[in-house]
Amino acid sequence: MFGGFGQSTARIINKEDIKVSFKDVAGCEEAKIEIMEFVNFLKNPQQYKDLGAKIPKGAILTGPPGTGKTLLAKATAGEANVPFITVSGSEFLEMFVGVGPARVRDMFAMARKNSPCILFIDEIDAVGRKRGGKGGMGGHSEQENTLNQLLVEMDGFSTEESSVIVVAATNRVDILDSALLRPGRFDRQIYVPVPDIKGRASIFRVHLGPLKTSLDKVQLSRKLAAHTPGFSGADISNVCNEAALIAARDAAEEISQKNFEQAIERVVAGMEKKSQVLQPEEKKTVAYHEAGHAIAGWFLEYADPLLKVSIIPRGKGLGYAQYLPKEQYLYSKEQLLDRMCMTLGGRVSEEIFFGRITTGAQDDLQKVTQMAYAQVCLWNR
């Protein structure tokens, strides 16, 4: 499979070697329900043929990075008990003319040979972006030639004959060529979102399973889910692994609640910089700055609840304030203004107590500028 230039770099995983199924995928229940139709077709194709139904040829999994799109595709193959052929979109692109289209042809030939199966193209935006830009020979770039071949192959086979389901993943569906998304090619777009608090709790339960701790894992998963708003499945996996690493570094016999809290801090704010020593005046400035955020948030009706304030240097920052924002989709003008005021609380605190401001407010000013721009230009507030 890794032979000459024109040979596909796709990797095939036999159905016996796929150890992932839907029970291992949490936090995206709606996406699992949508993709279950493909599983049913691969298990019972005759049922669909008898009714005259045409199963969609493929689906594109969209959503932010780290939400489990690749895992969901692999679990679909595991659930259907069929081989899983995987390739990255960037692997089609080479400097030599004709290599990309040849690899596409070889990949689909491999899929037909191993039918029924699932063919998974990760990061399809690398090869499937909109055409029309300036390219190489004859006005066509190698990427466009590869995309054209992909479109031809999608048109050239039917699920009734080959039982091959093509699944692709991208977090940039907006840049994909419209011809790729039309019915008859990738008929379905399945959105895999960042999980809500219920989804995060179920993901934590999956990742807490193999960890050694005397804590009640159900209660722990709920608590950790409440403290990790906006975390993706990959972030949650990272938190659980970091907690185990911290416990191992401390030579502990099991993972404690404190280890999980330290792991969340590590993921949110970066690694603690014990070697970075602040001057007394700098430490005082950072303390007043972070306290300013906390005090401003306390008196603002719509500000996010404050979880923790620290003046220990982490990552790029000298200190940070951690909040627990509510999970909501619509914001009023008052909520947006309160959030801006809280963000500026640190800068104002420096000005009140020291009569000057420092460069420590740089990140806050960038955030407020983005909020103000969005209110004026996007939401017309």
Structure characterization notes:
- This is ATP-dependent metallopeptidase HflB.
- InterPro entries: AAA+_ATPase (IPR003593), AAA_lid_3 (IPR041569), ATP-dep_Zn_Metalloprotease (IPR050928), ATPase_AAA_core (IPR003959), ATPase_AAA_CS (IPR003960), FtsH (IPR005936), P-loop_NTPase (IPR027417), Peptidase_M41 (IPR000642).
- One of its GO terms (biological process) is mitochondrial protein processing.
- This protein is of the alpha/beta class.
- The protein is 49% helix and 11% strand.
- The chain has three domains: 11-191, P-loop containing nucleotide triphosphate hydrolases (Rossmann fold, 3-Layer(aba) Sandwich), CATH 3.40.50; 197-269, Helicase, Ruva Protein, domain 3; 280-379, Up-down Bundle (Methane Monooxygenase Hydroxylase, Chain G, domain 1).
- The protein has 16 helices and eight strands.
- It has a six-stranded mixed beta sheet with strand order 1-3-4-5-2-6. It has a two-stranded antiparallel sheet with strand order 7-8.
- The termini are far apart.
Q: What is the topology?
A:
Elements: E1 11-13, H1 29-43, H2 45-50, E2 58-62, H3 69-80, E3 84-88, H4 99-113, E4 117-122, H5 125-128, H6 142-156, H7 159-162, E5 164-170, H8 178-181, E6 186-191, H9 197-208, H10 217-226, H11 233-249, H12 257-269, H13 280-299, E7 306-310, E8 320-323, H14 333-343, H15 345-354, H16 362-378
Parallel strand pairs: 2-5, 2-6, 3-4, 4-5
Antiparallel strand pairs: 1-3, 7-8
Subcellular location: Mitochondrion
Cofactor: Zn(2+)
Protein name: ATP-dependent metallopeptidase HflB
